[in-house]
């Protein structure tokens, strides 16, 4: 009857295991997250340590969800503060100081380990030492098939770390703002904050829809031509005058599909152009974007190196505007409705006569980040949008 003794012994072992499981030795509960690749990724139900490879987007969403303190490793972008200056024809120097991301302003100290910068690859030894529960990667290249992207994902997965991949709008053939909402919802799923993430995505979409509805009936013959222009010093060093955003960029999608204006540069790409080419385009409106530094409207009016394009209609009619300071300009972040509103008001001031951008943006910061008005004013300055106040725009 030895088999009876063996059965009893097995039952005792099972009972012990059951007791151990009941006192905290149970396997960790997991949650399934479907990421931007369509992959099902198993992450812990209770996440405490996160590594983010991002341009600030992941950090911003985590801040809104109240999960920012769980970030133990990432890139240096949210720890950076920037200054910018340019000379004027009068011999003066315009200076812009302390430009930063909104999350940097609201959380000046991000106590995490920098595992990569805009100039360096991921330090996998440092990443491993952080022992994260999950790594979240936002892909901002033009393809998920990019060799470096695939290598990064494979390397982290080989370390036994769950990897949730977000596909930014840059990964798609045609830009679409719904992909940004998808990214927000995936991050919400990671932390079990689906409802709050949906609220954020819905609010951003509501601002987009408002712009769309106000401009959707404009006939082609009455559409304003808008040029999204980067006043890049690199372009000038190469003999050009700046860089333009072509028809396959999300900036052009903002202009043509949401604001219902016309991109003055009707070709794909992001090429440098000459002063002669810029004069030939002669757009109704010029909107300056971050490119090798922030560029305020005054730069085109007063910098000596732009006097050769002073005959541009947009300069003569004082229709040059600037998007908010966006360091690490690779993929839009949750402040993208500000870009839309600046472009829309610049293109069709009569349709947005009831909106003052300098006031609207304060409401935007308060609604998105839950801050008070004083903090919102500080955020407006941190994104170098004080020109909107000065011009009552």
Question: Can you walk through the features of this model?
Answer:
This protein is of the alpha/beta class and 393 residues long. It has 16 helices and 15 strands. The protein has helices spanning 2-25, 57-65, 102-106, 124-130, 147-158, 178-190, 194-215, 233-237, 250-258, 275-281, 297-302, 313-316, 336-347, 357-369, 373-382, 387-390, and strands spanning 30-34, 40-44, 50-53, 71-75, 82-87, 93-99, 113-116, 134-139, 163-167, 225-230, 242-244, 262-263, 272-273, 285-288, 320-322. The strands form 4 sheets. Strands 10, 11, 12, 13, 14 and 15 form a 6-stranded mixed sheet that branches. It has a 5-stranded parallel sheet with strand order 7-4-3-8-9, sandwiched between helices. Strands 1-2 form a two-stranded antiparallel sheet. β3 (50-53), α2 and β4 (71-75) form a beta-alpha-beta unit. It is globular.
């Amino acid at each position: 009857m030895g088999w009876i003794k063996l059965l009893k012994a097995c039952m005792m072992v099972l009972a012990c295991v059951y007791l151990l499981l009941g006192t905290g030795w149970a396997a960790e509960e997991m949650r399934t997250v479907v990421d931007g690749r369509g992959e099902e990724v198993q992450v812990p139900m209770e996440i405490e340590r996160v590594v983010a490879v991002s341009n600030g987007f992941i950090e911003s969403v985590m801040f809104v969800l109240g999960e920012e303190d769980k970030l133990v490793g990432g890139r240096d972008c949210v720890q950076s503060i920037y200054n910018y200056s340019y000379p004027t024809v009068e011999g003066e120097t315009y200076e812009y100081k302390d430009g930063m991301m909104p999350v940097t302003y609201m959380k000046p100290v991000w106590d995490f380990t920098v595992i990569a910068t805009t100039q360096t690859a991921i330090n996998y030894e440092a990443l491993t030492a952080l022992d994260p529960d999950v790594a979240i990667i936002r892909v901002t290249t033009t393809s998920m098939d990019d060799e470096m992207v695939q290598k990064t994902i494979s390397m982290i997965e080989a370390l036994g770390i769950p990897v949730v991949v977000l596909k930014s709008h840059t990964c798609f053939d045609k830009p679409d703002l719904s992909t940004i909402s998808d990214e927000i919802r995936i991050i919400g799923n990671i932390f079990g904050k689906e409802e709050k993430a949906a609220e954020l995505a819905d609010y951003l979409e509501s601002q987009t829809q408002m712009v769309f509805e106000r401009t959707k009936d404009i006939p082609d013959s009455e559409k304003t031509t808008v040029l999204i222009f980067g006043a890049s010093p690199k372009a000038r060093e190469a003999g050009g005058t700046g860089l333009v955003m072509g028809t396959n960029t999300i900036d052009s999608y903002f202009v043509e599909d949401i604001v219902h204006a016309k991109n003055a540069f009707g070709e794909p790409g992001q090429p440098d152009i000459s002063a002669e080419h810029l004069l030939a385009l002669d757009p109704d409106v010029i909107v300056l974007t971050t490119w090798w530094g922030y560029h305020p409207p005054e730069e085109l009016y007063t910098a000596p190196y732009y006097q050769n394009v002073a005959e541009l209609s947009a300069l003569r009619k004082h229709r040059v505007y600037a998007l908010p300071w966006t360091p690490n300009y690779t993929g839009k972040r949750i402040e993208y409705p500000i870009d839309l509103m600046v472009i829309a008001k610049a293109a069709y001031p009569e349709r947005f006569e009831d909106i003052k951008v300098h006031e609207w943006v304060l409401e935007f910061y308060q609604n998105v980040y839950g801050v008070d008005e004083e903090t919102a004013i500080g955020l407006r300055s941190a994104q170098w949008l004080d020109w909107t106040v000065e011009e009552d725009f």
